[in-house]
């Protein structure tokens, strides 16, 4: 039960608020001056404070300041009968959640209290995610949009059979979110199996998902267990579900409906116990209208939808994401890079991030490979972020330290970076990536596997 502290010097107001809030199921404490209110805040587990700005000899502004010193996270709603813009704005600047003017209706009071308590609950959830770095090492964000994503991850993770459909632009972190759901669920000790539906042709994808018996087709020399069977008790993540062949969609719909599979070349049905998480950067409703995706499959997948916002719509997350990737890659490459200059951060925030988080990760990795400085400055940034037009010729600006480099390792890092950026540009489509880089698909697949980019 949430506990609310009401601070007002008028007994009628105190009793009225106490009665109204108690009827709504809240635990209510009351105080009439600074001393009582600070004592209760210090001693009790208070979730929310309703604070009158005018308390006779005591100033509500001074009490607010003292409360924030005792508990910086405490949410305070200011009550004022005077309603001056100046006092309300001053209180909000000092960290008050909101204000309400006397006289106020019960409905308005209940609404603002509910919203404040929901905000506190989400902040607490976010803290719990941050504490559990082993479960969610890659989920980073402080924006309201990401706070909502965190809440949804925690809620759907509890329900281990619920099918999840994650949508969002390429690079927004769909696989990271799917792993977070798995790691927080009762299935966390079972396998997490992922497959990209856009990277394999129909017959290979069918064999990978369902498995096959020996002799099911020409190259089926032995029995193969499919991913849906292999993931028993765990989670199957189907990336780029929008690229799945229409014929295979029919078979996969039956899997979702019956929770049974049949290996290729077999006549026996096998029960499966897996959670399905699918993801796509496509507009599936548009694909349905174009007869490229089955409507019935969409509704089977869309039990719990999660839409991930693009990075350009949550600039509050750019600084913490940069800090996260700098710590990772400066440690991996044994560099001393520790922060971003104010000027460089402004350029990062002004950039549109077409490749989203994946693009940022690749850029920070490249900077950590190439430079020895402690602070990332504008001259270290790619031209598209620094606001310069790229020069023709494909020149790569490379810094060689005085003690030399490991040539083979550096060339591999550059090759990996080129592949990563090409995957971002093509939405991880293998055919388009091979055309963009002008290399055969077989060579591309080999290199993707070599660098763990599959």
UniProtKB/TrEMBL annotation:
InterPro entries: AAA+_ATPase, AAA_lid_NorR, CheY-like_superfamily, Homeodomain-like_sf, HTH_Fis, P-loop_NTPase, Sig_transdc_resp-reg_receiver, Sigma_54_int. One of its GO terms (biological process) is phosphorelay signal transduction system. It comes from Seleniivibrio woodruffii. Residues 139-369 form the Sigma-54 factor interaction domain. Keywords: ATP-binding, Nucleotide-binding, Phosphoprotein, Transcription, Transcription regulation. GO terms for molecular function: ATP binding; sequence-specific DNA binding. It comes from the Bacteria. The lineage of its organism: Bacteria, Pseudomonadati, Deferribacterota, Deferribacteres, Deferribacterales. This is Two component Fis family sigma54 specific transcriptional regulator. SMART domains: AAA (SM00382), REC (SM00448). The modification 4-aspartylphosphate is found at residue 52. Residues 3-117 form the Response regulatory domain.
């Amino acid at each position: 039960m949430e506990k609310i502290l009401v601070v007002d010097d008028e007994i009628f107001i105190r009793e009225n608020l106490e009665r109204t809030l108690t009827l709504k199921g809240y635990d209510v404490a009351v105080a009439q001056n600074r001393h009582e209110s600070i004592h209760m805040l210090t001693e009790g587990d208070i979730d929310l404070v309703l604070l009158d700005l005018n308390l006779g000899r005591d100033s509500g502004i001074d009490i607010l300041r003292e409360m924030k010193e005792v508990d910086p996270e405490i949410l305070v709603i200011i009550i004022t009968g005077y309603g001056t813009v100046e006092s309300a704005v001053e209180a909000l600047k000092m960290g008050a959640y909101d204000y309400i003017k006397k006289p106020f209706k019960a409905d308005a009071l209940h609404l603002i209290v509910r919203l404040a308590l929901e905000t506190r609950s989400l902040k607490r959830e976010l803290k719990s995610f941050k504490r559990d770095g082993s479960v969610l090492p890659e989920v980073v964000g402080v924006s309201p949009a990401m706070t909502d994503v965190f809440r949804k991850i925690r809620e759907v993770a509890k329900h281990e059979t619920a099918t999840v459909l994650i949508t969002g632009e390429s690079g927004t972190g769909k696989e990271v979110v799917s792993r977070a759901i798995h790691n927080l669920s009762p299935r966390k000790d079972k396998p997490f199996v992922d497959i990209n539906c856009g990277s394999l042709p129909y017959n290979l994808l069918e064999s990978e998902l369902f498995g096959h018996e020996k002799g099911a087709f020409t190259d089926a020399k032995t029995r193969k267990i499919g991913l849906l069977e292999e993931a028993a008790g765990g989670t199957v993540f189907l990336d780029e579900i929008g690229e799945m062949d229409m014929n295979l969609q029919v078979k996969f719909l039956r899997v979702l409906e019956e929770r049974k599979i049949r290996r290729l070349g077999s006549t026996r049905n096998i029960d499966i116990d897996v959670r399905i998480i699918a993801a796509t950067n496509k507009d599936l409703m548009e694909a349905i209208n174009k007869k490229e995706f089955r409507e019935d499959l969409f509704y089977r997948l869309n039990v719990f939808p999660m839409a991930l916002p693009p990075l350009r719509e949550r600039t509050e997350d750019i600084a913490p994401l940069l800090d996260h990737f700098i710590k990772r890659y400066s440690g991996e490459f044994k560099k001393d890079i520790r922060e971003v200059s104010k000027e460089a951060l402004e350029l990062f925030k002004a950039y549109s991030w077409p490749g989203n988080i994946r693009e940022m990760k690749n850029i920070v990795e490249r900077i950590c490979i190439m430079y020895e400085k402690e602070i990332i400055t504008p001259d270290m940034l790619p031209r598209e972020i620094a606001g310069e037009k790229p020069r023709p010729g494909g020149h790569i600006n490379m810094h060689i330290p005085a003690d030399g480099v490991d040539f083979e390792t550096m060339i591999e890092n550059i090759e990996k970076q080129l592949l990563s950026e090409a995957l971002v540009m093509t939405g991880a489509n293998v055919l388009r990536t091979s055309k963009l880089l002008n290399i055969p698909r077989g060579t591309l697949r080999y290199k993707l596997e070599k660098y763990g980019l599959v």
